[in-house]
Design a protein that fits this description.
The complex is a heterodimer.
Chain A: E1 2-11, H1 18-26, E2 42-49, H2 53-68, E3 74-82
Antiparallel strand pairs in A: 1-2, 1-3
Chain B: E1 4-9, H1 16-25, E2 29-34, E3 44-47, H2 68-77, E4 82-85, H3 87-94, E5 101-103, E6 111-119, E7 135-142, E8 146-148, H4 151-159, E9 163-167, E10 178-182, E11 188-191, H5 208-219, H6 232-235
The chains are: A alpha+beta, B alpha/beta.
Chain lengths: 85, 236
């Protein structure tokens, strides 16, 4: 089976986010008020072949832990769905 | 015989020749090592600055899987001195040879200037000939030098005397002003400033000689000396 994968990489809670805070600081001068908690991450999309969803998820967990994230500072949220065609 | 320092060149490294030049100026024998293993016949290894493998995904994230890193990890496990400078520091953290991580500078500022860093311990492969409290003027040149770690890791670093250098004036938001750390065995050291760029009077500072000279001195210790803590009085 082929699955569409979306890996959302975010800095872990409590880790300072220089990009998020820079964006947040700029918002009031642009006229956007009342926005806080800005966090910037990465969105990675690809397809994976596996026998079943459990197999795909297991491989993705390993991929995220070893390569797509730095577990010292980042977490990944994985979304899997069967490919449309 | 002059100690041989291997300077690993990844695709995208750009400070390897500067390090070789600085090592030779200190009486060592610098040798550029292309990223192919095995590494042999060296007394120390430097991972230089630059943009190894383009810094894609994260600085060091791809370089850590380079085949040469197996040799670097084995060399470090045997007690050999390994120094990561700037991008090399990032590679060492990604490879798990050093704790913590380096993320984007506070305020998203690329920092390129002289920096003053304070030697916090002389029990490391990069500070053995320095003195605690010495302030070194060494250039920095980075966007992702903001040292970050968990509170637990920070406690461990402090308790084990693994914080090797602190910035006098924190330029990038690093946790606890950290500019450089070492591993628990003290033979692997990473720092963001570039000591190789402060080894000649024409460059405005010669303080980098303290760092690279300490590494050269460490090569003569042999691995048996690694575990033995040294006090300031015995080293100086």
């Amino acid at each position: 089976m082929i699955f569409d994968c979306h890996v959302d990489v975010q800095l872990r809670p409590g880790i300072a986010d220089p990009q998020g805070s820079t964006i947040e600081r700029s918002l009031p001068t642009l006229g956007f008020d009342g926005i806080d908690g800005v966090r910037v991450g990465k969105s990675i999309r690809f397809q994976i072949s596996a026998d079943d969803e459990a197999g795909a998820r297991s491989e993705l967990d390993d991929l995220c832990a070893r390569f797509l994230t730095n577990p010292v500072i980042e977490d990944a949220t994985i979304t899997l769905s069967p490919a449309a065609n | 015989m002059a100690p041989v320092i291997g300077v690993v060149q990844f695709p995208g490294s750009n400070c390897e020749l500067d390090v070789v030049e600085a090592i030779e100026g200190l009486g060592g024998n610098g040798r550029v090592l292309w990223r192919r293993p095995p590494i042999s016949g060296v007394d120390g290894i430097v991972l230089p600055g630059g943009f190894a493998h383009g810094d894609y995904l994260r600085p060091g994230a791809i370089a850590r899987f380079s085949a040469v890193m197996e040799s670097v990890i084995a060399f470090a496990a045997d007690g050999g001195p390994v120094l990561g400078i700037c991008n090399g520091f990032q590679v060492l953290t990604e490879a798990g040879l050093l704790p913590g991580a380096l993320q984007k500078n506070h305020g998203l500022k690329f920092r390129c200037s002289q920096a003053h860093i304070r030697v916090e311990t002389i029990n490391s492969a990069a500070t053995g000939t320095a003195g605690v409290g010495d302030v070194l003027e060494i250039p920095i040149n980075h966007f992702e030098g903001n040292y970050t770690c968990s509170p637990e890791t920070l406690d461990e670093l402090r308790a084990n005397d693994q914080i090797v250098f602190r910035y006098v004036d924190n330029p990038n938001g690093s946790t606890d002003d950290i500019a450089g750390v070492c591993n628990a065995q003290r033979n692997v050291v990473g720092l963001m400033p570039h000591p190789e760029r402060a080894c000649h009077p024409l460059l405005g500072s010669v303080d980098g000689r303290s760092v690279l000279g300490s590494m050269l001195a460490w090569t003569s210790r042999g691995t048996s000396a690694l575990a033995a803590p040294t006090s300031a009085s015995t080293v100086r």
